[in-house]
Amino acid sequence: MKSILSAFLVVFLIGCKSKQAVATTAANENTEVSKVIKGHYKNEHDFTTLNIRANAKYEDYKQSHSMNADIRIKKDEIIWINIKFFGIPMAKAMITPTKVSYYEKINNTYFEGDFSMLSNWLGTDLDFNKVQNLFLGKALDDLTKQQYISEVVDKMFKLALPTYSDLSKEFYFEGANYLLKKEVISQASKNRNLEIRYPSFKEEKGMFLPNEINIKAIQKDKIAIDIEYKNTTFNENLSYPYSVPSGYTAIEIN
Predict the structure, then answer these.
(1) d(CA 69, CA 48)
(2) Is 184 in a helix, a strand, or coil?
(3) Of 37, 82, 153, 231, which is most buried by a Cβ count within 10 Å?
């Protein structure tokens, strides 16, 4: 169970099936890269707080488990996650722009550190904004900072960096609102691959949020996490309680 909680939190920190879904459109070969990028960032998320209740399923080559999660986001400041098995809180995580922390109750252990834990695990630099973007269905990277090559693949716009380095990044968008459908980060030399899919989105208070998030991560072993957002509410007065219980043992994650 310790490995499940640790792996789930690692992938979750970097990560909804609704009856309402935003209509999508096939990509057009004549659309310029700049239009895709501008269209994606036109979908702004203007909120103070976001409260998400989610179901999730974790699976690796040994086991499969279902769980629930309460996710609270104070925009640009805090991401708070409470993991529950059968309704019982079993792990909690707190992310700020400078720190990543979590503890789990099965083995009475906790972790405190910076984003290097997540960055080393994925083979790419991470920070608070990138983690926040993943929960909001936004591109992991700032797409305005690089020169991308565009093509239409499976009726989606694919933006990719020229393949001159060991690290490969690809972003796929639908053609109506330029919503992110998939992003893939690969590092061949270390056999690392992260794929994040957003099958559908919903529009709420003028903002697009994902309905579902499907995460597959490969580094030696394969981990799959499917997240379903059951309920989302904005701009509530939320609390973010986090305190490591006494007697817990600090751990290191390589």
Answers:
(1) 20
(2) strand
(3) 37
pLDDT at 12 over 80: no
CB 229 within 8 A of CB 54: yes
Average pLDDT over residues 167-183: 94
The span from the CA of 220 to the CA of 191, in Å, is 7
Q: By C-alpha distance, which of 49, 21, 70, 69 is closest to 225?
A: 69
How many residues would you count in the chain?
A: 254
The answer to whether residues 228 and 54 touch, using CB atoms and an 8 Å cutoff, is yes
Sign of the alpha-carbon torsion through 223, 21, 76, 103:
negative
Share of the chain above pLDDT 70, in %: 84
The confidence score (pLDDT) of residue 119 equals 66
- Token readout for 132 is 């926040």
3-state secondary structure (DSSP) of residue 24: coil
Please count the CA atoms within 13 angstroms of the CA of 111 that sit on its side-chain side: 27
The pTM assigned to this predicted structure is: 0.86
- What secondary structure does DSSP assign to 62-125, as a single string? S-EEEEEEEEEEETTTEEEEEEEETTEEEEEEEEETTEEEEEETTTTEEEEE-THHHHHHHTS-
Q: What angle do CA 134, 60, 200 make, to 5 degrees?
A: 35
- Return mean pLDDT, the chain: 85
Give 223's DSSP letter: E
Residue among 100, 127, 109, 137 nearest 18 (CA): 137
When comparing pLDDT for 82 and 15, which is higher? Answer: 82
pLDDT of 16 above 60: no
CA distance 238 to 129: 20
The tokens for 109 are: 């252990």
